[in-house]
Design goal:
CATH architecture: 5 Propeller
Distance between the termini: 21 Å
Number of strands: 20
Length: about 325
């Protein structure tokens, strides 16, 4: 059952428009973990394609940047294959304006230590990103964690706020937990949201946890995916929650609020804000915006065939 949190709308995920479909109608084939930038009347989309473990070019094998005039029909302008980063997998990217151009944050598995990391690229246009110029932003070593991924960036005045999902450091975690290249899928630790801030978008100060995991359905992961400022003040955030690593790929969406972006309070501890009502019920990587009096909510959803697709729903804003 979907839950009401004023001033947020309820919505039926099955009623959304399909924006992107997976390569195959089979479990393990996904397209999603979208990041959406609405900039000067155009929509920019970052998304990731995945194949099952064991398939050719398995896991997160391709990430792309696409553009649209209407927010529905997107055309790719740039993409990267995981082999260009010598990585076993990539996940969420994040695009934002930078002066007269754009900056792209990438998350992928570091080929050196199998830990997730975040790097950056800059270019005058998204079509001109050069993967050879990638530079480090946040790593496990720099944050004192077991890995960082899935950046979401908010800019307020001169400050860049980067929210990331991280693998919490615990005594006894060794290299074996990273043998698969995905500590999120082995149950060795929990995965809250951390915050890093910067005044130049390059050199970040790590502040650690700002949104922790809960005690129930969200006790394993609480990954903040998007943040929307409210006209009455403060912010509402949409986060992915899961109870264990068995749900690592099938998270559901919860709601959190903050007055200052540093301290977040979960409102969904009793249950997810929204589920699909089919298959695993997963609705994840929600990227929400208020545009021209409407909520534009992009989300990755699990289908009955257990493939994942990217959808969009638009509902009136209160």
């Amino acid at each position: 059952m979907n839950r009401v949190y004023a001033p947020l709308p309820t919505f039926d995920p099955l009623a959304g428009d399909v924006i992107l479909s997976p390569e195959k109608a089979e479990a393990g084939y996904w397209v999603g973990c979208a990041g959406v930038l609405y900039d000067q009347g155009r929509f920019w989309l970052t998304y990731r394609q995945r194949r099952p473990r064991g398939a050719e070019a398995e896991r997160g094998w391709r990430c792309a940047v696409a553009v649209s005039d209407d927010g529905v029909d997107f055309s790719d302008v740039w993409s990267v294959h995981k082999d260009e980063l010598r990585s076993s997998s990539m996940e969420r990217f994040c695009l934002l304006p930078e002066g007269d151009g754009y900056r792209l944050y990438l998350s992928y598995v570091d080929p050196i230590d199998n830990r997730w990391r975040i790097d950056a690229l800059s270019a005058s246009e998204p079509s001109k990103f050069d993967i050879a110029a990638v530079r480090p932003v946040l790593t496990a070593a720099l944050t004192g964690t077991e890995g960082v991924k899935d950046p979401y960036v908010v800019q307020v005045g001169p400050v860049t706020y980067m929210f990331v999902s991280y693998a919490a450091a615990l005594d006894g975690i060794g290299a074996a937990a990273h043998s698969t290249g995905d500590i999120y899928n082995v149950g060795a630790t929990t995965h809250p949201t951390g915050l890093a801030t910067s005044t130049d978008g390059e050199r970040f100060d790590w502040h650690g946890q700002v949104l922790g995991v809960g005690q129930g359905w969200n006790r394993y992961q609480a990954r903040l995916n998007s943040v929307v400022p409210m006209s009455a003040g403060g912010y509402v955030g949409f986060y992915d929650g899961s109870a264990s690593h068995d749900e690592n790929y099938e998270e559901r969406c919860g709601i959190a609020v903050s007055a200052d972006l540093f301290t977040w309070h979960r409102l969904s501890d009793e249950g997810p804000w929204v589920t699909s009502g089919q298959a695993t019920g997963s609705v994840r990587y929600v990227d929400a915006h208020i545009i021209d009096g409407q909520w534009w909510i992009y989300y990755e959803m699990t289908r009955v065939d257990l493939a994942h697709e990217l959808r969009l729903i638009r509902v009136p804003a209160a």
